[in-house]
Structure formats: C-alpha cells, structure tokens
Design a protein that fits this description.
0% helix
Amino acid sequence: MKEQGGLGPGHLLPHAGRQGLGMLLDALLGQGQITVEGPFLDAGDSVLAITGGTGEVAGATGDMALKARGTDGKAYDFIYRIK
C-alpha cells in the first residue's frame, strides 16, 4: 500500500557525545497516528522505530526510513513500513 500521510509534531534532541540527533515524531494518518523514535543522522540516511499507534493502526510496529533527497540536508523522504 502506498499512501501519502501528514506529519504532526516532532522533536529533535541532541545526543551527548554521539553524531546526529534523536528524533521523536507523530505521523498523522487518515485512520489514526503512529509514533516514531530513533536517530536522525546528519551525514546520511536513518532508520527509526515505529513504537506505537492509535485508531486503525493501534499497536503498530515497524520502521521508518528517512532518506536524504540530496546532499544539502534540506529535503527528505519519510518511508513507513508498518506491520
């Protein structure tokens, strides 16, 4: 299934002594929302964990690939693999 969803509130938090930032965000979908947590790497792609959901995606697991569209760090594709 390929659908376009929306992103809701998110936070980037620094990791002491580690490269990149920690990311926590909610993805608002037509049938509910999912929560994603994990590393946001400055120098490449990241894979974050889906840690839960609401509505029709309650109890969701899986991951989200965060793929850079270029090398300037200004645009990313958010690819969700929900189980």
